[in-house]
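Bench log, entry 3. Co-assembly request; chain sequences pasted below exactly as received.
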Amino acid sequence: MTDDGTTLAGRGEAGLLGDVLAAYRDLPTDGVLVGPGDDTALLAVRRGAVLATTDTVVRDRDWRDEWSSAQDVGIKVVTQNLADLAAMGGRGTGLLVALAAPPTLPMDWARGLSEGIATAAGMAGVPVLGGDVSSTASDAVMVAVTALGELADGVQEPVLRGGVRPGDVLAVSGPLGRSGAGLALLEGGASVGRDEQERRLLDHHRRPVVDLEQGPVAARAGATAMIDVSDGLVRDSDRVARAGGVTLVLDRGALERLAAQLVPALPASGALRQVLAGGEEHELLATFPAASAVPAGWTVLGQAVAADGADGPPGVRLDGSRLDPATGGWDHFGG
Amino acid sequence: MTDDGTTLAGRGEAGLLGDVLAAYRDLPTDGVLVGPGDDTALLAVRRGAVLATTDTVVRDRDWRDEWSSAQDVGIKVVTQNLADLAAMGGRGTGLLVALAAPPTLPMDWARGLSEGIATAAGMAGVPVLGGDVSSTASDAVMVAVTALGELADGVQEPVLRGGVRPGDVLAVSGPLGRSGAGLALLEGGASVGRDEQERRLLDHHRRPVVDLEQGPVAARAGATAMIDVSDGLVRDSDRVARAGGVTLVLDRGALERLAAQLVPALPASGALRQVLAGGEEHELLATFPAASAVPAGWTVLGQAVAADGADGPPGVRLDGSRLDPATGGWDHFGG
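Structure output for the full assembly:
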């Protein structure tokens, strides 16, 4: 739709809800026993338990209007919620969307947000069950999404962070550092990519799309632990290591091959930093009992070893040193 | 806890999460297969389907710090979510809590919020399954709660808004107008009640507590439609009337008896206005196929009649006139 200059206040709550629900009209309705419009939704649960997670994005913290469209924000907030479900071996079955925004927010932005949410939900085959609209007194804009889901077919137990054991192999479902590289390009003034590589990196920062089915694939392959890369490889690996009481030893060669995919958009040192510390990637990071169990298309990154006293507490190591999760290890790479 | 002057930024995300989870430690854990701390929660669902709703509160819109404590805000946001479940004939089985706040927010406030959430969740026997913490760039503070639930024992179908039929009796589970009266007292400068009545009204505005079990009670009694009074009797009745295609005729005598409970804290005309238009009450409003079906303790407010062309479209009527949901009807009462 084109910008007609209307704000939320001008359109009114009923008009806003009508526009929002129109954007969700073509989403699947499998399992939706009661949809938007009543006091609550009612969603069928086939497998005796529901997965539930919530993730919020805030303007000027999680996105900047000059760099990201409303559609981008909608895709991003849905992807990060669905990636959390995938990281349990699950798939989405429903979304709840809460928007808090000032009355001066352009309706065009609110419609764009709904279109982005519908795009990402549609790719995953997930309905929007309901939501809430609130006004803010300041100019804050916040989108809180709750994703419900269930364990995918063939997955008997959720894959938790703490199931890793010494000897397990660490692997990732796709590239790393793209979102961080895209952000670095934006901060460097390159909001329009100068070539196909830069455009892909910018796209992944603005509207990350990952193959969420790889979560169930990993679970069926026997993944012992899993998490999605939302805060960077080192921080998220460190969470797995500490939850499982092991040390994860990263393989420099594997990291450098991933970093090479970000060059020449970034210089080599910056590329390695983004592979280690770049967040909002949302690829899946998992451990497997053997290299032969790692699914096709995944990249082996290292191995779990027993955390013994000599090497300090559980954590992530590279080239014999522990990587600090607070910095994503980048102090070790010339800052 | 006492205020130690620490802010969110000073305490850090890990410290904040630790304090928040400590507040929830004594809540029941029935059905919680995976709780806070992993990518998602996993909640058992006994009855084949999950109820889901989300409701957000925003500082300076839904509460003012000079009038409401953090504990009040926590109780209020949980109550309004659980009341939505009750209005389907359901009960809560889990909560997700998202807080977005500036780094300067006092930790004491965040702890108080969690204590209030724990208080209301504890009264309802509902665990906190997980959540999210985000920082805001402005001074906005927002709390988004998602409540999951299931139909209560003995309730076979959700009670929707649209099930009302001509001849049904309209009733409410408790008093009306208390929250609106409490707000009117605050706006009049009476932040400390001058007597027991005023204190009760102020309490219900700040931290509404309702008997959520009345939702399942009504459902088992054969309620044909139900909603909780969040936006005022007229607006919420109007929703039921339009959803069911009927006219709901209110009984002036019943309204005046409810209004009398707000006098002398409010003058009689103001009291009737609050009964009609006062929001955030969260008592349950339901229709029943006969007066004999109305549960003990509920108050009959009127009756559903066929909406015929002569009286205009479906809506709410009093003394022969349609009440405007946009104003809660108060234009008809001398404004």
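The radius of gyration of chain B is 21 Å. The longest strand of chain B covers residues 90-101.
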